[in-house]
Design goal:
Elements lengths: L2 E3 L2 E6 L1 H7 L8 E3 L7 H7 L4 H12 L5 H11 L12 E5 L3 E5 L9 H5 L2 H12 L4 E7 L3 H10 L5 E8 L5 H8 L6 E7 L2 H12 L2 H10 L1 E5 L5 H20 L9 E6 L4 H12 L3 E8 L4 H8 L1 E3 L20 H8 L4 H14 L1 E3 L2 H10 E5 L2 H15 L5 H17 L5 E5 L7 H8 L8 H12 L5 H4 L11 E3 L3 H9 L1
Parallel strand pairs: 5-15, 6-7, 6-9, 7-8, 8-16, 10-11, 10-15, 11-14
Antiparallel strand pairs: 1-2, 1-3, 4-5, 12-13
Helix pairs in contact: 1-6, 3-4, 3-11, 11-12, 17-18, 17-19, 19-20
The structure holds pyridoxal-5'-phosphate.
């Protein structure tokens, strides 16, 4: 299996090269030259297997330059029951007749990012050994809150790596901020920026190609890589859980092997839903992909009109990990839908950079609409849905998941489609206590985040994850905050 860039299809890389490098030099994203298929027989043979075995079967098809030994090493160390508090790695909770919440937040940092970021450090260090041997990998991360913590936890004290995480100072929840600023590990650095997630992501992308910094790296024997979902090594582990969740529905006799399902995903950078699209391309029977946005509904509008337009107000919402106006992974989808037209991709994404918008031709728009349903949900609706799901089903969901539930509900009402549907549940409700509390409790909400946790436990009879409770006793290690223009300086300092 070879990898090419969305902006240069003539490139040919191995998966190890794509993962070690993170992003292509001309700014494109790495994609497999073809999507491998997963037959019904193969799926049948995986029924009853462990998550690790299912992961190996799927990953093997994409990472063909990894030996079985290397893959076993990566997977067996990433998905252990010390790191995940569920034997299954994920959980499936049925809510109503047709909806199944795919809980992806049973890892160390309580968000779905752990599903990929527990594995990525292993994939990356093995990839580096195969391709760039003795270089130290410097991982730069832009986060809207959850990637940062999950990346820090995954790369903590991993030999041969160091990492700097940038997060928007006012754009993350208090629990998310504490998770990052108290992070331990000698190879890790965390820095706030005065700006939003898009600023952080643009800043990081610019640093990746800054000639002065690249020269310095070269002299130090270092190289950059990315732990954001622009890195193929972040996406490929996410394909696994859609296959595993489908098989679990079969194992639990909710569906028969071969039956179609829908998949609904609360979406920001378009990574998670793109993984579901790839799973469908492999042969997983997926009828509709439901793309759920918050008030920053640039994707809803794109699916409806074929015009992507980021020239609009940016909102801070109660689902901060989805407060994004530039969804990077859409580029990979458009590459596939346009028949690998790298020249069209170059045109659209340079228009996005210069004018903030682009329009795809009708053929691409129609293909998009046949596979995807797009919808959105504002903060008031998010709160209402958390309250409704809790009172009707006794199930407590976080703000992001609620966006997915709401848009799924709207899809089902409009389409009358009662196909069973996986809804990605992307974070523990305890990461967003204040918003979740205001949905389910009439009492005054305390301002201290740990009092909020206590109150949420009391009101709902649910239990907060131990890793969040333990933050209370941790010292804050990182307090630095810089302007957007100072991000490059912060990187140079960290390199020393
Ligand atoms: C990152 C994140 C999302 C958005 O996922 P994308 O892959 O960026 O679309 C949704 N919910 C939560 C809780 C997240 O952390």
């Amino acid at each position: 299996m070879e990898y090419q860039s969305t902006r240069d299809s003539s490139l040919r890389l191995s998966s190890a090269q794509a993962i070690a490098q993170g992003i292509s030099a001309e700014g494109g994203l790495f994609v497999p030259s073809e999507i491998p298929s997963l037959s019904m027989q193969e799926m049948e043979s995986l029924l009853g297997a462990s998550y690790r075995e299912k992961a190996k079967a799927v990953l093997k098809k994409f990472l063909t330059d990894f030996t079985d030994e290397e893959l076993n090493y990566c997977v067996d160390n990433a998905y252990t029951d010390q790191k995940f508090d569920s034997d299954n790695i994920f959980e499936l909770s049925k809510v109503g007749d047709t909806a199944f919440l795919l809980e992806l937040w049973h890892g160390p940092t309580c968000a779905f990012k752990d599903m990929a970021l527990q594995l990525l450090p292993y994939l990356m260090t093995v990839s580096a050994k195969k391709t760039v041997a003795d270089k130290e990998i410097v991982v730069l991360v832009a986060t809207s809150g959850d990637t940062g913590k999950a990346a820090l936890e995954g790369f903590k004290d991993v030999p041969g790596t160091r990492m700097l995480v940038f997060y928007p100072e006012d754009g993350v929840s208090r629990m998310q901020k504490l998770q990052m600023t108290t992070q331990e590990g000698e190879n890790l650095f965390v820095c706030a920026i005065k700006g939003n997630f898009d600023d952080a992501q643009n800043g990081v992308k610019a640093i990746f190609t800054d000639p002065e910094i690249l020269k310095e790296l070269e002299q130090n024997g270092q190289m950059f890589s990315s732990a954001n979902s622009i890195n193929w090594g972040r996406l490929v582990p996410q394909i696994v859980y859609y296959v595993a969740a489908y098989l679990k529905m079969v194992e639990e006799k909710e569906i028969a092997l071969g039956d179609e399902i829908n998949v609904a995903v609360p979406t920001g950078n378009f990574g998670n839903i793109l993984a579901a699209y790839y799973a469908a391309q492999m042969g997983l029977p997926v009828k509709k992909l439901i793309c759920a946005s918050n008030k920053n509904k640039v994707l809803t509008d794109f699916i409806a009109t074929g015009t992507y337009d980021k020239n609009r107000e940016f909102y801070l919402t109660s689902s901060p990990s989805m407060d994004i106006l530039i969804s990077s992974n859409l580029e990979r989808l458009l590459y596939a839908l346009s028949g690998k037209d790298d020249s069209a991709i170059r045109t659209w994404f340079s228009a996005l950079k210069t004018q903030g918008r682009y329009t795809v031709p009708d053929s691409v728009k129609e293909e998009l609409q046949s596979r995807f349903y797009g919808g959105f949900c504002d903060d008031a609706e998010t709160e209402a849905i958390i309250r409704e799901v809790f009172s009707r089903y006794g199930y407590l969901c976080d703000t992001h998941t609620a966006v997915g539930v709401k848009v799924y509900k709207e899809y089902k009402e409009q389409s009358k489609d009662d196909t069973k549907t996986l809804i990605a549940s992307t974070a523990s409700p305890y990461k967003f206590c204040e918003s979740v509390l205001s949905a389910v409790s009439d009492e005054a909400i305390p301002s201290d985040e740990f009092l909020q946790v206590e109150q949420l436990q009391k009101v709902t009879g649910t239990k907060a994850p131990a890793s969040l409770l333990s933050l209370k006793d941790k010292a804050v290690r990182f307090q630095k905050s810089v302007a957007r223009e100072e991000m490059a300086e912060a990187v140079k300092e960290m390199l020393k």
